[in-house]
């Protein structure tokens, strides 16, 4: 059997044994851990075949797994590939062409709206076709340089001959698979953070700096779905004198946050574990009695704005989940907001493109509490090789 056929067979084996209940990356890693005959090039090529299969999302589902692996490779590649050269020589010379042109060659009629078919869930303003197409390409790697580390980071990357593009002084774009993290002191000088996740910081900064001016030095801030603290870290980098409180539903996550904050040199903060979906009481000493000045809820969500990085989630997504996310998101925001002082700001963030997880949660919140919507916007990444995110900032009367 040729190498190309062997790669396709192995990818088919992985895909047929995978059911989407856990992330694909560890499943592939585990598969190879017991099969030592595969070298790093083999593993990379086979893994790529699997990912490209899922990148087709919900399109071309009537093809056999094998044909869909080959189609995935053809549509997702933009340079010659030896597998296409061997298996589909009649497609090979068209591999650098546009998707529409590739359709003429394959006869498949692949459409963006078939890759991502949950179009009735999208708000106005999102280009459904462009968003669908974007899943064919893995988004870029983005780095946020921490204040004062610009020279150190640029020098480390240049010395290691690692290519990058400076989008702004703080935001660097790198190709996927870049070895940048090997040469940078991650968390101390720079953090891995998607472009639009960084943009949420700009939206926050513009609004708060305009409305609060010098008062920003003394604010109390609660990140109520903190995970390992990516947004808190960004907030502290913008407003270094903030009194920070962080919480999350699981203690193991807060342990990761402690480790990350230590690397980042952050020592003064308060942390606790709380499930905000339930009405479980939050310890009295954990939250400010007067109410926080700012609460940030980067809530659990479908992640539909990030499926370019995890296309298996797009493939296996059950749209019935959207309403469950909506309810959890509303509960978390509504419960957290009872600890916001009047005049304080509530920042709501998701990495979902679905209206039900975004605008509809905000609308329901404004019906339940006295709030003004200062801003709400989608930060779309489908034209920039970045994630898509949603941010709303509300003020409590
Ligand atoms: C999108 S992540 C937050 C990412 C984080 N802000 C960052 O920038 O790295 C959502 C977090 O919400 C937490 N979460 C899920 N359900 C929760 C709940 N009921 N109450 C509080 N936190 C919850 C998850 O454990 C997860 O860490």
UniProtKB/TrEMBL annotation:
<feature type="active site" description="Nucleophile">
    <location>
        <position position="351"/>
    </location>
</feature>
<dbReference type="InterPro" id="IPR049560">
    <property type="entry name" value="MeTrfase_RsmB-F_NOP2_cat"/>
</dbReference>
<dbReference type="InterPro" id="IPR001678">
    <property type="entry name" value="MeTrfase_RsmB-F_NOP2_dom"/>
</dbReference>
<keyword id="KW-0489">Methyltransferase</keyword>
<keyword id="KW-0808">Transferase</keyword>
<protein>
    <submittedName>
        <fullName>Fmu (Sun) domain-containing protein</fullName>
    </submittedName>
</protein>
<dbReference type="Pfam" id="PF01189">
    <property type="entry name" value="Methyltr_RsmB-F"/>
</dbReference>
<dbReference type="InterPro" id="IPR029063">
    <property type="entry name" value="SAM-dependent_MTases_sf"/>
</dbReference>
<feature type="domain" description="SAM-dependent MTase RsmB/NOP-type">
    <location>
        <begin position="223"/>
        <end position="397"/>
    </location>
</feature>
<comment type="similarity">
    <text>Belongs to the class I-like SAM-binding methyltransferase superfamily. RsmB/NOP family.</text>
</comment>
<feature type="binding site">
    <location>
        <position position="298"/>
    </location>
    <ligand>
        <name>S-adenosyl-L-methionine</name>
    </ligand>
</feature>
<feature type="binding site">
    <location>
        <position position="248"/>
    </location>
    <ligand>
        <name>S-adenosyl-L-methionine</name>
    </ligand>
</feature>
<keyword id="KW-0694">RNA-binding</keyword>
<feature type="binding site">
    <location>
        <position position="277"/>
    </location>
    <ligand>
        <name>S-adenosyl-L-methionine</name>
    </ligand>
</feature>
<dbReference type="InterPro" id="IPR023267">
    <property type="entry name" value="RCMT"/>
</dbReference>
<keyword id="KW-0949">S-adenosyl-L-methionine</keyword>
